[in-house]
Amino acid sequence: MKYVSTRGQAPVLSFEEAMLTGLARDGGLYVPETVPTMSADEIAGLAGLSYEEVAFKVMRPFIGEEFTDRELEACIRHAYAGFGHAARAPIKQLAANHFLLELFHGPTLAFKDFAMQLIGHLFQTALEKRGEKITIVGATSGDTGSAAIEAFRGLDNVDVFILFPHGRVSDVQRRQMTTPVEGNVHALAVDGDFDDCQARLKDMFNHFEFRDAVGLAGVNSINWARVLAQVVYYFTSAVSLGAPHRKVSFTVPTGNFGDIFAGYIAREMGLPIEKLVIATNQNDILHRTLETGVYAKAGVTPSISPSMDIQVSSNFERALFDAYGRDGAVVAKQMEDLANGEFKISQGAMEFLREVFNSGRASEDETRAAIKDVHDETGEVICPHSAVGVKVAKEHLGAVPMITLATAHPAKFPDAVKEACGMDAPLPGRMSDLFEREERVTRVPNDLTAIETLIHNRTGR
Ligand SMILES: *Cc1c(COP(=O)(O)O)cnc(C)c1O
């Protein structure tokens, strides 16, 4: 299996190389040269298997020879062993034909754990064999950072630096990043918003001298291995509702477009998905893009679903690449235009996107109302991100069962939840002392040189 860049100018890589690299050297994102498919019989054969067994069958064809079957099996087994639910990704019914896929039973209580725990083990396996050390730098709107730290803390051949927007993540999110005691963990509070953090990260990847000196590796949702790990729960949930004999649709609370792009890959592999519905909060660039065909940046307005407070959805580039018939030059040109604020998507490409994706948005009031409605109707307490999904999903219910992804545990956002439905959302027992642990964080300006200097000093490379 080979991986190519969405901008067509970077070297073709193996799975392991693409995973260790993250962002392609031409600024693009790696995607598989061809997407392997599963027949209806193979999909039907997933019924009744464990999450780990489905994960192996779905991911194996993408991974290639660098990992043996035994190594991959071991990575998958270790990745999900620490989850607080035997099903890993259990499904709950909300109403007739509407289901909630709970993706928050991992160690940091958000769906990011599904991918990050796995790639922690894949990185470790690969680096031990290669005898190499790397520096992981990630940008986070809250949940990626804690998931990455949890996955890489204490590993010998990895230093992990996480950039998060100062003052714009929840207390639980921040403490999950600032309280680990391992010396290889570095939480950096940036004076800026999430897009600034993401932009500085991209700058570091495009600064090849720095990139090579510190052995820079990226684990943001642009990392192909993360997208791949997320494909699995589309299969387990769809099969549990009757796929391949019955179609399903998904609604996905969306920020960087990584999670929903995994659904697109599942669909390409042959899973009978009718529609993938993009649910955005008031930062609704993707919803506007689907409506108007113009991808136009606007400022980020902080919301009660902060992990979706994003304007530049990096993974959208992967969908564009397919929408333009995999023409890297066209994608590169559009991304160049984006530097000036916006680009216009061709009619053909828009038709391609609208065939697969629908979209909707939820305002702050609508998000709070959705938390309250779900609690009134079912007794379940959901987080604000999941509530954005539920609100938008309700607008797209039909004959086909709808699965809404519940992306975080309500305890990560207790204030918003309490305000919306009056309920406390306690942390699970295994992290109930989070607020007693000591914090360790470095405040940094939104400045590339300052951040690079700090990383040089801390790693000694
Ligand atoms: C990261 C995140 C999202 C957005 O996922 P993308 O893959 O960036 O679209 C939604 N909800 C929560 C809780 C998250 O942590």
Automatic annotation (TrEMBL):
Residue intervals of the Tryptophan synthase beta chain-like PALP domain: 99-332
Keyword Repeat recorded: no
Annotated Threonine synthase N-terminal domain residues: 2-80
Cofactor list: pyridoxal 5'-phosphate
InterPro entries: Ser/Thr_deHydtase_PyrdxlP-BS, Thr_synth_N, Thr_synthase-like, Threonine_Synthase, TrpB-like_PALP
Reactions the enzyme catalyzes: O-phospho-L-homoserine + H2O = L-threonine + phosphate
Protein name per the record: Threonine synthase
Gene name tied to this protein: thrC
